[in-house]
Design goal:
It is built from 15 helices and 23 strands. Strand 16 (370-373), helix 12 (380-383) and strand 17 form a beta-alpha-beta unit. It is globular. It has helices spanning 40-58, 62-78, 80-91, 95-118, 151-164, 179-190, 205-214, 227-237, 262-274, 291-306, 326-341, 380-383, 399-407, 422-430, 464-470; strands at residues 2-3, 6-8, 11-13, 20-25, 30-36, 124-126, 130-138, 141-145, 168-172, 198-200, 220-224, 243-247, 252-256, 284-290, 345-348, 370-373, 390-396, 411-412, 414-418, 436-439, 454-455, 458-459, 472-480. The chain has 484 residues and is α/β, with parallel strands linked by helices. It folds into two domains: 2-248 and 457-477, Aldehyde Dehydrogenase, Chain A, domain 1, CATH 3.40.605.10; 252-447, 3-Layer(aba) Sandwich (Aldehyde Dehydrogenase, Chain A, domain 2), CATH 3.40.309.10. Strands 15-16-17-14-13-19-20 form a seven-stranded mixed β-sheet, sandwiched between helices. Bound molecules: nicotinamide-adenine-dinucleotide. Residues 145-149, 154, 172, 174-175, 205-206, 209-210, 213, 224-226, 229, 232-233, 247-250, 281, 385, 387, 413, 453, 458 line the site of nicotinamide-adenine-dinucleotide.
């Protein structure tokens, strides 16, 4: 079994009190690693290390730090297959997905921010009698807290801009998926990143996560995770006036207008619903279909879903692996039961699946992709974030009704609209209360664009200049022209 350690002040080390937690492989339900169960004393050490590295790191030029990001990207790229295999072991997601999405994006996050930094021009504002210059300094030591669904992908999405803008880091990955964060720490260590610039502390949210939130020496918190946890983060960090970025949950809609290309919409809706077993914050778990196209769309959608191969995540042929844990599987199943209580009917799925698994005796957190119809769009299973392979179908008769259903959600993260009329798609998208809306596509990402949610889905935006803004403080320097 692998022994994962914290990475503090350039040293791999156990929790100060020596306690550990187990990391579980959800496909076999076996223990694959131990991680430190860190406490506030470990966070304290990480903050001291970060502070001692802060001055030297922030005094490098942006260009020099962009160079570091390039070197990190190159080093991670060499390990891409190792990252993908490890991510699959830790999460149960198909290896093909870990390769295509998790490993690839972890590399491109660093490369993107390096390139993006080089394209920036100094910001200044000319007045008749003076010139304003925007001067950026780092926030300081920042706390980065991340979830289990896209472990290294989301951690690197924060680490890259935080390093670029001259911050030092205390990071906490999810205790459920700690392994690829450890690969990142090993990589930075091999590259001789100055000690203390990046510190990694493993452990439980209410223990080590909370200690990061509460530490007065941490000036900014970038958090991605559930809305309930986000509330705790805000409650703790906001009164300390820490800079705060909250990327939270969602209950995203996929809207099929009556003029949609049925084949394209079916493909897109299946992908939006069941990628990573429905465990992407952007997944479309409420599908709204115009009545005029429902007869063509619904049977084709259900057929395609029932053909998805659920099985061993290591197999090339697998479309969907496990969900993140057996406990999570039970949560999703409880929503399937709730759907039946709420008057729903299961069109496909609804039971655990072990197809293609090499160890059929293992319990494994497998669940077939499940499609439910007949529940109200205001029902609990159509309004609460389930974060698993289960979607509800709803029909509408006109655009306003569709918009009312979509915007009734407390969440506002993402959505997709499917129509052959692109102008209509744009107009419809602009009325959806959410941070991202795709027209005729899903999870199509340009890293320069703003990413984030409104309502219960979060506060603030990441991506491109929004990440650069979050990870820096701005000073406007106004210089008066002489004799004017
Ligand atoms: P979670 O909120 O349970 O945990 C996220 C992180 O917060 C983990 O590292 C956890 O240990 C830590 N944490 C828990 N309690 C804490 C506390 N009291 N103080 C500080 N840290 C604490 O979320 P999860 O179950 O790991 O991830 C799934 C959720 O994340 C879903 O709701 C999903 O929508 C959301 N998510 C959002 C985005 C986005 O960009 N908006 C992206 C991915 C996932």
């Amino acid at each position: 079994m692998q022994e994962v350690l914290n990475y503090i002040a350039g040293e791999f080390q156990p929790a100060e009190d020596g306690t550990t937690l187990y990391d579980i492989n959800p496909a076999l339900e076996t223990q694959i690693a131990t991680i430190p169960r860190s406490k506030s004393s470990d966070v304290e050490k990480a903050v001291v290390a970060a502070h001692s590295a802060q001055k030297a790191w922030s005094s490098l030029t942006l260009e020099m730090r962009a160079g570091w990001l390039d070197r990190i990207a190159d080093a991670l790229e060499v390990k891409a297959e190792h990252i993908a295999q490890t991510e699959t072991l830790d999460t149960g997601k198909p290896l093909s997905l870990s390769r295509r999405v998790d490993a690839a994006r972890s590399v491109s996050n660093f490369r993107f921010f390096a390139d993006f930094a080089r394209q920036q021009t100094p910001e200044s504002f000319e007045m008749d009698d003076a010139m304003n210059y925007v001067h950026r300094t780092p926030v300081g030591t920042v706390g980065l807290i991340t979830p289990w669904n896209l472990p290294l992908y989301l951690l690197s999405w924060k680490v890259a801009p935080a390093l670029l803008m001259g911050n030092t880091i205390v990071a906490k990955p999810s205790e459920i998926t700690p392994l690829t964060a450890n690969i990142l720490a090993q990589t930075l260590d091999e590259l001789d990143l100055p000690a203390g610039v990046f510190n990694l502390v493993h452990g439980l949210g209410p223990e080590v996560g909370q200690a990061i939130l509460e530490h007065p020496g941490i000036q900014g918190i970038s958090f991605t995770g559930g809305t309930a946890t986000g509330r705790i983060v805000a409650r703790t960090a906001a009164p300390m006036f820490k800079k705060l970025s909250l990327e939270l949950g969602g209950k995203n809609a996929t809207i099929i207008l009556e003029d949609a290309d049925v084949e394209l919409a079916v493909q897109g809706a299946v992908k939006a619903a069941f990628t990573n077993s429905g465990q992407v914050c952007l997944c479309g778990s409420r599908i709204m279909i115009h009545e005029a196209i429902a007869e063509a769309f619904i049977p084709a959608f259900v057929q395609r879903v029932s053909e998805l191969k659920v099985g061993d995540p290591m197999l090339e042929s697998t479309d969907m692996g496990t969900v993140i844990s057996y406990e999570h599987l039970q949560k999703v199943e409880s929503y399937i039961e709730l759907a039946l209580e709420e008057g729903g009917k299961i069109l496909t799925g609804g039971t655990q699946a072990m197809t293609g698994h090499p160890h059929p005796e293992a319990r494994g957190a497998y669940l077939r992709p499940t499609v439910v119809t007949g529940v109200s769009s205001a029902s609990r299973c159509a309004t609460e974030e389930i974060f698993g392979p289960m979607v509800t179908l709803h029909t509408f008769t006109d655009e306003q009704q569709a918009l009312d259903m979509v915007n009734a959600s407390e969440y506002g993260l993402a959505g997709s609209v499917w129509t052959k009329d692109l102008e209509r798609g744009r107009a419809f998208a602009s009325q959806i209360e959410s941070g991202i809306v795709w027209v005729n596509t899903w999870l199509h990402r340009d890293l320069r664009t703003p990413f984030g949610g409104m309502k219960l889905s979060g506060v603030g935006r990441e991506g491109g200049r929004w990440s650069m803004d979050f990870f820096s403080e701005l000073t406007n320097i106004c210089v008066k022209h002489p004799d004017q």
